[in-house]
Amino acid sequence: MGREPRRAVASDRPAAAPRPEAGAAVVVPGETSIPVRSDADVVLARRRGRELAATLGFGPTDLTLIATAISELTRNIVLYAERGQIVLKGIERNGKVGIVVVARDDGPGIPNVPQALESGFSTSGGLGLGLPGVRRLTDEFDIVSEVGRGTTVTVKKWKR
Amino acid sequence: MVVPILKQGHYLIATIPTALTDADLQDLRDGLVAEVGLYRSRGVVVDITVLDVMDSFAVRTVRDIAHMTRLRGAETVIVGIQPEVAFSMVELGLTLEDVNTALDLEEGLALLDRKTKRAGKGGEIRGT
Question: Which residues of B touch A40 (CB under 8 A)?
Fold first, then answer.
């Protein structure tokens, strides 16, 4: 171990422990981390997310919304950062069950986050980040991005 | 994953067998656009019944297939969009407004029959 420290990014553990937050969510089952390197990982990540959400008891419509959100987030990593990871976990807060998706990369970062969140749906022409769409598909949306350091998007979806 | 493209009369039928990567979808697009010319096809059916996710990239590529084949003289109809997928597309603000859609393969072929028949008559039906 430590022989090739740069490869440690693809471990099964998240790079940093999740930060505790107000009304701290309790992790239900274990968490899954999926290294993201190519567009094949987009398919893998959304399938894993769908499986976990199905285990948590989400209905068919929510499963599709969750899988679609994961697809968009994972593709952003492939397109803009080339590599990163998707972390999936079940959570519980105030008796409600939910799923958390964390999309983390150490790519170029987003210079203007508010603009990325407001720039319409960007469906027709170029490659939009799709972040407004992801926000609509999920219940809670959080983004931390620093130019030159990377981007972390955290979304939550609660079971109805 | 190569999506097989079947030739049936004047139509091409591509039934997506499983979840596709972005590259697979682009290959399908390029294959259909080429084969429309190769077989002088009048219509294309893309069956996406098995797809459980249509994200922005997939919707854009499907729309590109329809537009590009139309520029080559063939009508494309997308069939098999599942209810949940339709819901998520609307939530995402993704539409296929100027793209033919139909419930399933049977309806898609019927739509193509109507479309290509009308096109075949050309100016004759004007004013009727």
Answer: 21
Kindly provide the ipTM of the predicted complex, given to two decimals. Answer: 0.86
Residue A126 has pLDDT above 60, yes or no: no
Domains of chain A: 25-158 (3.30.565.10)
Residue A61 forms contact with B (CB below 8 Å): yes
**Residue B128 in domain:** no
User: For residue B32, what pLDDT is reported?
Assistant: 98
The per-residue pLDDT for range B51-107, each reduced to its tens digit, is 999 998 999 999 999 999 999 999 999 999 999 999 999 888 888 989 999 999 999
Contact B53 A67 (CB under 8 A): yes
In whole angstroms, what is the distance from residue A15 CA to residue A61 CA?
A: 31
- B104 in a structural domain: yes
Note whether residue B27 is domain-resident. yes
CA distance B128 to B124: 9
